[in-house]
């Protein structure tokens, strides 16, 4: 018999039963003859149950109708009946003698109590304590009291021969009364041991959650299930018990249970493991966050909410599928920290934990990826994936097929870094380096003398640099002069013309600001047409305009003599790239902001992290241009071998979830572009942080004066301060400014402190100490936990010093539970360099005048009695010297303060000269300066600042969308190429032919036929005569070109089929001849190996060229907008046309190489044998 329960409106009570709760609503009557009677209702239908008296077995009545007898107890000598000491039915290992009757009770489902019975096979004798033997059943326990009555345990009957599932929280509104039949003899299986299935929320609760305004209402209901199972697992303590339960979970997954169904049970066990091993029980808020980290969901959790511990639950759950569970964070340091923290909890659960760091050997990486749970950075994951796509031996791969990824700081990975692809690059050959460096140096020397605003312009909104009209003439002239050869018969005349042109062009650029197409009358009256000039009485010609006309006339004469270099001629186009790189290096990339120079190398600074992007180089020669600009030795230029963007990297996973503190502002983009939902999780404690309104200043000088004054005041109060800056350059300036004002500080930026080093960690660890001022870039942003002192030691030390100087005896009572307070306070006492200024103290004895007595116990007698607890700290103030271009970075900075309900303050300082307002603000700055002095002016400008920031965010979102559209095209091609390549590598000679490998010989023959046929088809277009004559002529021509003669018999029918047959026959003949004449020192499959290698080399070369073509097409497609076409559509058409051409190239080059070499080898082997 099986007892199913729903959330009861009533409960059964029985004399002698323990754990039951007497119902308050429903009427229960006891009749000595008929037994216990319960009257209740289900969905408005009255139901009366009459059951046997306690300890008796007999008929049950439903609404007055007798129901067949319940199963009788088993034999008295059977140990299965001896385990009922507490009167709640047999325990684990207990069972009942089954009944042969089957009963279906027509009881409506709903909120009433539902019984159903089923026949069971004969129970076998039990010899262990692992539950009923085959054919048996048992009652799970314990009872669970609910607000609506007793939640009864469930009798688990035998099941058919399939693994039994423990269903999490089913909705009993859909409970069905089923008729079950006994399994056939020999087909019975023992039920899975575990907790009873929790019945979950009522229909009403589910509906309320669905329409609730609470973003985690559904998770709150599921948390009830987790808590129920947590009580069920309370007996699990030892590693063996945890591991055994994990193995059962894995079997349940193999048996068909989904991870979603298993989640409450898995989360409950993981929560217990955290408590047992780490001494930390995840807060409810962390559990809600974990329940929100389902596939396709990003949980927004506030900074300081403990996302590291939260990740334990989803990582463990997804590891049960046996396919790997990845925690992907933003750097190796955080990966190591997360791994170290959660490894004990994971191992106690019986799952393996792995760590993959960037510089690990391949064997260690492979072991890390093969673990159940793997910690690694997004860079490491991406580069290892690309590396696996370039191997030639399948055993060299380190990764397995991806399954689940949990992204820490998901918005940084999927949004901030979405436009920058991961690239594995090849290096120029030695013969290519020298000319590339020469061109780079030539254009660097020219560009460094150009005048901004006259010769070239910078558009920081579009991140582009371009020459003006006159600037192009200047560059052409300078290149021509540098390359003018003395053996030119007109050398002297051209040299003189070029030098004069240099002066004239400089004057023209100054007058016209680089534009050559301005009408004469608009040179001095810009924006006014000639007619309006006449009406207003303004001159249409000036002395300056007449001079410009004369300059241009003379320029034309000189250009006839010396036109300079034509960089845009077809044979010169390659040089334009070096010019553009030099121009961008000069105008767009700033030292200390976009890159740093360290150890003789140009290092890229990540705008969002504020950190050095180690190992990365700009491609297409830009990095080389920066090295030349900084006077460093240029390294070989790189070209792309393999690349992928992060969004497409994570699209490869079957399940993806994320967590971050700043996803809400990009919720729409996550949903529409990436298909991920954002759930905002409430904090564990209500925040006490105060975010002050921005302070607006007209100039940066005024702004930094205000910052300095605020820092000085906070320093005197002993409050730790984080001064946030946007760039290395600004960080060093602010640090120097504070030092010049006598304010000690520590600086943290990518130029002075290398990322993820003990030096960086030391700065972060002291940043929360009282009186410490830290000036930092975004290195102190994401993932950084600054913990403020619980005590304001500086303020306490000042109070002690003041009292001692007044000749008083001072007693300071410290917290005996915080022994470190002694060392922290005395470090302030000993801070002065002069011994006379140090605060004198003792740790025992009696209070003395002019001295401090430090004690952990209550002491009396001092003139001044102080307690550490009366000088509270726990407060960090963040002062940001500038608003960032993205609101999420600002929010990350705010999140450094007031973590976990601690007090904190944030203040942003903005000037009208900041990048945000100067580049992206649409309003005239002079008008804004006047607005500052008016009532309400600050508030109006704050709104304008928000609008400018939103404008930048929208621009970035549009750019990411554009990148995503383009990259999807490349990704489709990438999947085809890499899919083929992976399978080809797996099929390397010597491997057995399987469904997952390729037949090398057959594939090569197909390629040869395709390439040869295409070549013949093209050659036929140039032949004359009838069809057969054109065919034979074309075959002869191609045979000469490929050095592989083929005889195509004359006849009727499809010429392609005749050529196919002849080609394959000739290929087989040559291959057979080579193998027959092969000397003994050549291995048997040497020909197949050569074919395999040749095809792989040409595939890699073709794909490398295709990547460059795609990049070029991406740049050129934007011009399609001028022709009224969609750039994306034009790109798609050209990209796939190029893709077809790439495959034809790969097949053609492979065919050409193989046929030529096979013919030569065949002839050589025949000659040797002869």
Q: Please state how the strands of the largest beta sheet are arranged side by side.
A: 14-15-13-16-23-12-24
Q: Residue share in helices?
A: 40-55%
The residue ranges in which pLDDT falls below 50 over 5 or more consecutive positions are 1-34, 41-45, 54-60, 67-194, 518-529
What's the alpha carbon Rg, rounded to whole Å?
A: 40 Å
Structural class: alpha/beta
Quaternary assembly: single chain
The residue-averaged pLDDT reads: 79
How do the strands and helices of this protein lay out in sequence?
Layout: E1 2-4, E2 27-31, E3 35-42, E4 45-51, E5 60-62, E6 65-67, E7 114-116, E8 138-139, E9 144-146, E10 149-151, E11 155-156, H1 203-210, H2 217-232, H3 239-254, H4 259-278, H5 284-292, E12 297-300, H6 307-310, H7 312-319, E13 325-329, H8 332-348, E14 353-355, H9 362-369, E15 373-377, H10 378-388, E16 404-408, H11 410-416, E17 422-427, H12 430-447, E18 456-459, E19 464-467, H13 469-482, H14 491-512, H15 530-535, H16 543-561, H17 573-587, E20 595-598, E21 601-604, H18 622-629, E22 638-644, H19 646-650, E23 655-660, H20 667-674, E24 677-680, E25 688-691, E26 695-697, H21 700-717, E27 721-724, H22 728-740, E28 746-748, H23 758-766, E29 773-776, H24 793-805, E30 810-813, H25 820-829, E31 841-842, E32 852-855, E33 864-867, E34 876-880, H26 887-894, E35 903-911, H27 915-920, H28 925-932, H29 937-986, H30 1000-1020, H31 1027-1042, H32 1055-1076, H33 1086-1117, H34 1127-1169
Parallel strand pairs: 12-23, 12-24, 13-15, 13-16, 14-15, 16-23, 25-35, 26-35, 27-29, 27-34, 28-29, 30-32, 30-33, 31-32, 34-35
Antiparallel strand pairs: 1-7, 2-3, 3-4, 4-5, 5-6, 8-11, 9-10, 17-22, 18-19, 20-21
Helix pairs in contact: 2-4, 2-5, 3-4, 4-7, 4-8, 12-17, 12-18, 13-14, 14-16, 17-18, 24-25, 29-33, 29-34, 30-31, 30-32, 30-34, 32-34, 33-34
């Amino acid at each position: 018999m099986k007892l199913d329960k729903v959330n009861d409106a009533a409960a059964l009570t029985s004399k002698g039963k323990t754990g039951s709760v007497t119902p308050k609503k429903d009427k229960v009557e006891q009749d000595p003859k008929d037994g216990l009677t319960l009257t209740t209702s289900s969905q408005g239908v009255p139901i009366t149950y009459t059951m046997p008296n306690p300890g008796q077995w007999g008929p049950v009545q439903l609404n007055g109708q007798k129901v067949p007898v319940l199963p009788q107890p088993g034999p008295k000598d059977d140990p299965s009946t001896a385990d009922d000491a507490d009167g709640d039915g047999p325990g684990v290992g207990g069972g009942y003698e089954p009944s042969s009757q089957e009963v279906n009770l027509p009881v409506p489902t709903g909120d009433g109590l539902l019984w159903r019975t089923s026949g069971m096979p004969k129970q076998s004798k039990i010899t262990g304590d692992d539950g009923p033997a085959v054919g048996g059943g048992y009652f799970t326990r314990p009872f669970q009291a609910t607000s609506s009555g007793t939640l009864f345990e469930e009798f688990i009957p035998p099941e058919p021969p399939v693994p039994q599932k423990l269903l999490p929280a089913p909705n009993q509104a859909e409970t069905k009364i089923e008729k079950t039949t006994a399994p056939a003899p020999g087909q019975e299986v023992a039920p899975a041991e575990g907790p009873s299935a929790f019945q979950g929320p009522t229909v009403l609760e589910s509906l309320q959650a669905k329409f609730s305004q609470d973003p985690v209402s559904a998770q709150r209901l599921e948390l009830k299930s987790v808590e129920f199972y947590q009580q069920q697992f309370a007996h699990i303590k030892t590693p063996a018990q945890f591991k055994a339960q994990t193995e059962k979970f894995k079997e349940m997954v193999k048996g068909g249970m989904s991870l979603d169904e298993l989640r409450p049970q898995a989360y409950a066990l993981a929560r217990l493991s955290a408590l047992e091993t780490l001494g930390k029980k995840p807060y409810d808020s962390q559990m809600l966050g974990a329940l929100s980290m389902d596939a396709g969901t990003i949980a927004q959790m506030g900074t300081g909410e403990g996302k590291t511990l939260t990740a334990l639950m989803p990582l463990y759950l997804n590891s049960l599928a046996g396919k790997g569970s990845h925690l992907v964070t933003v750097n190796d340091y955080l990966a190591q920290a997360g791994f170290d923290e959660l490894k004990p909890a994971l191992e106690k659960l019986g799952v393996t934990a792995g760590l993959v760091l960037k510089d690990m050997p391949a064997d260690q990486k492979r072991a890390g990826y093969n673990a159940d749970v793997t910690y690694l950075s997004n860079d490491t994951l991406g580069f290892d994936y690309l590396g696996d796509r370039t191997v030639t031996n399948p055993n060299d791969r380190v990764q397995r097929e991806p399954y689940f990824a949990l992204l820490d700081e998901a918005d940084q990975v999927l949004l901030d870094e979405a436009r920058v692809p991961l690239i594995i690059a090849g290096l120029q050959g030695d013969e290519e380096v020298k000319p590339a460096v020469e061109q780079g140096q030539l254009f660097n020397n020219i560009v460094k003398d150009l005048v901004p605003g006259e010769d070239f312009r910078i558009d920081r909104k579009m991140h582009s640099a371009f020459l003006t009209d006159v600037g192009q003439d200047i560059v052409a002239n300078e290149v021509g002069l540098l390359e003018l050869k003395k053996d030119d018969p007109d050398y002297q005349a051209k040299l003189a013309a070029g030098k004069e042109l240099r002066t004239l062009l400089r004057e023209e650029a100054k007058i016209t600001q680089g534009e050559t197409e301005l009408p004469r009358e608009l040179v001095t009256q810009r924006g006014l047409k000639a007619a309006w000039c006449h009406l207003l009485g303004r001159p249409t010609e000036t002395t300056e305009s007449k001079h410009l006309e004369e300059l241009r006339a003379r320029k034309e004469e000189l250009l006839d003599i010396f036109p300079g270099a034509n960089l845009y001629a077809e044979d010169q186009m390659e040089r334009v790239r070096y010019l553009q790189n030099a121009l961008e290096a000069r105008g767009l990339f700033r030292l200390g902001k976009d890159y740093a120079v360290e150890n003789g190398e140009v290092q890229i600074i990540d705008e969002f992290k504020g950190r050095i992007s180690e190992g990365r180089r700009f491609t297409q020669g830009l990095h080389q241009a920066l090295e030349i600009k900084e006077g460093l030795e240029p390294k070989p230029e790189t070209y792309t071998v393999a690349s992928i963007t992060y969004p497409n990297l994570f699209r490869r996973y079957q399940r993806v979830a994320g967590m971050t503190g700043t996803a809400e502002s990009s919720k729409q983009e996550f949903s529409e572009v990436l298909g991920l939902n954002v759930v905002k999780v409430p904090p564990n404690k209500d925040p006490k942080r105060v975010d002050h309104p921005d302070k607006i200043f007209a100039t940066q000088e005024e702004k930094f004066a205000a910052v300095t004054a605020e820092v000085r005041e906070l320093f005197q109060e002993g409050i730790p301060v984080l001064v946030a800056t946007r760039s290395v350059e600004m960080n060093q300036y602010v640090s120097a400014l504070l030092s010049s004002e006598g304010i000690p500080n520590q600086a943290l930026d990518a130029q002075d402190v290398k990322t993820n080093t003990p030096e960086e960690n030391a700065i972060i660890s002291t940043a929360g100490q009282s009186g410490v001022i830290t000036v930092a870039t975004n290195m102190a942003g994401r993932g950084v936990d600054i913990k403020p002192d619980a005590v304001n030691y500086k303020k306490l030390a000042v109070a002690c010093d003041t009292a001692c100087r007044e000749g008083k005896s001072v007693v300071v009572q410290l917290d005996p539970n915080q022994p470190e307070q002694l060392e922290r306070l005395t470090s302030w006492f000993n801070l002065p360099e002069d011994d006379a200024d140090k605060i004198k103290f003792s740790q025992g004895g009696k209070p003395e005048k002019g001295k401090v007595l430090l004690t952990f116990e209550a002491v009396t007698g001092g003139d001044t009695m102080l307690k550490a607890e009366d000088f509270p700290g726990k407060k960090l103030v963040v002062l940001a010297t500038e608003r960032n271009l993205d609101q999420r970075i600002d929010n990350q900075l705010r999140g450094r303060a007031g973590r976990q309900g601690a007090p904190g303050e944030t203040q942003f300082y903005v000037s009208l000269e900041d990048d945000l307002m100067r580049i992206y603000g649409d309003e005239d700055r002079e008008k804004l300066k006047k607005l500052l002095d008016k009532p309400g002016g600050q508030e109006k400008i704050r709104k304008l600042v928000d609008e400018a920031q939103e404008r930048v965010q929208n621009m970035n979102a549009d750019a990411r969308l554009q990148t995503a559209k383009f990259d999807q095209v490349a990704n489709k091609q990438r999947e085809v190429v890499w899919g083929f390549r992976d399978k080809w590598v797996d099929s390397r000679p010597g491997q057995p032919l399987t469904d997952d490998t390729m037949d090398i010989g057959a594939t090569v023959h197909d390629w040869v036929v395709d390439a040869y046929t295409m070549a013949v088809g093209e050659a036929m277009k140039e032949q004359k005569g009838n069809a057969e004559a054109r065919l034979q002529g074309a075959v002869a021509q191609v045979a000469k070109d490929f050095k592989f003669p083929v005889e195509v018999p004359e006849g009727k029918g499809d010429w392609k089929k005749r050529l196919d047959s002849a080609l394959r026959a000739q290929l087989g003949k040559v291959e057979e001849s080579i193998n027959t004449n092969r000397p003994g020192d050549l291995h048997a499959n040497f020909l197949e190996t050569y074919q395999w290698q040749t095809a792989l080399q040409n595939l890699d070369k073709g794909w490398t060229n295709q990547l460059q073509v795609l990049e070029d097409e991406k740049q050129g497609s934007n011009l399609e907008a001028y022709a009224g076409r969609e750039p994306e559509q034009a790109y798609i058409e050209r990209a796939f046309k190029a893709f077809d051409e790439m495959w034809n190239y790969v097949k053609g080059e492979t065919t050409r190489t193989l046929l030529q070499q096979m013919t030569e080898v065949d002839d050589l082997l025949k000659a040797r044998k002869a």
